[in-house]
């Protein structure tokens, strides 16, 4: 009987402190080979700190981590040879052309001039950047720069790719292009660890999802398994005016089967209901009696948004807005990729 293959990424009990702040508090992760592990969490949950440890850019204070079969503490060079890393902030040199960026990275991976030229041209073709190959990257769109950054992370054909919020700040087209690249990577057998705040991104791409908050895992499973934790349907109502939110919450408390979740920014309230359409009718009657004007009302099955809100008590950031937040430890952005294996 053949023994099961070890996971491509595994961590056990990772702890990392920055002064009095504990960024990771016993984090356990497991990414199987050839799959996408989605790591969800709000800002400050520990996502980027975990990425930096896995990429050998930080040392954990406690716990163990292995990537592609190598221990990140005792075999950092082997880990770096096995991974590609693309962070929230592109590491593309904007003054170099697309070709020059990729050729430079290939040379840093000890490829000959001829092999580096060939690899750069292949990647430009694969990432649909051939026509822009000889233009400075500063003239690229956000989506093009992201594709170039991902191409650079793949120069050495890594078996594991770590993407730390790769679509931050991209427009919808750029995000869809990045999703396509991730799907192609997995189709070629690459393991991907994807950290994100965008729930539809995890829903679309991840085979397994881990939700972390305050540096620890609070839930894990497939998208459908996480949604099934909540069960039933959700009644979702958007108030027309902020002053009506208290009355809206009061109305929903009378028809729901749990606590009413409120997002004051969007004037939205939602609650789990067991009776579906009957709860909807009852809520509309209550709102009418209280003279609460609403912009939208409806029923839907639980989504990852509902799971995230229930587990963390917070909504994620607006997926259409660029993030300007600091990393988990309050420092500047993550380097785009680990140095290649030297």
Automatic annotation (TrEMBL):
Nucleotide-binding is among the record's keywords: yes
Taxonomic superkingdom: Bacteria
Keywords assigned by UniProt, alphabetized: Antibiotic resistance, ATP-binding, Cell membrane, Membrane, Nucleotide-binding, Translocase, Transport
GO-annotated cellular components: plasma membrane
Membrane protein topology class: Peripheral membrane protein
GO biological process: daunorubicin transport; doxorubicin transport; response to antibiotic
Domain annotation ABC transporter: ranges: 9-239
Cell location: Cell membrane
Region listing for Disordered, in residue ranges: 318-342
GO molecular function ontology, one term from the record: ATP binding
Family, as annotated: Belongs to the ABC transporter superfamily. Drug exporter-1 (DrugE1) (TC 3.A.1.105) family.
Name of the protein in its database record: Daunorubicin/doxorubicin resistance ABC transporter ATP-binding protein DrrA
Organism from which the protein derives: Actinopolyspora mortivallis
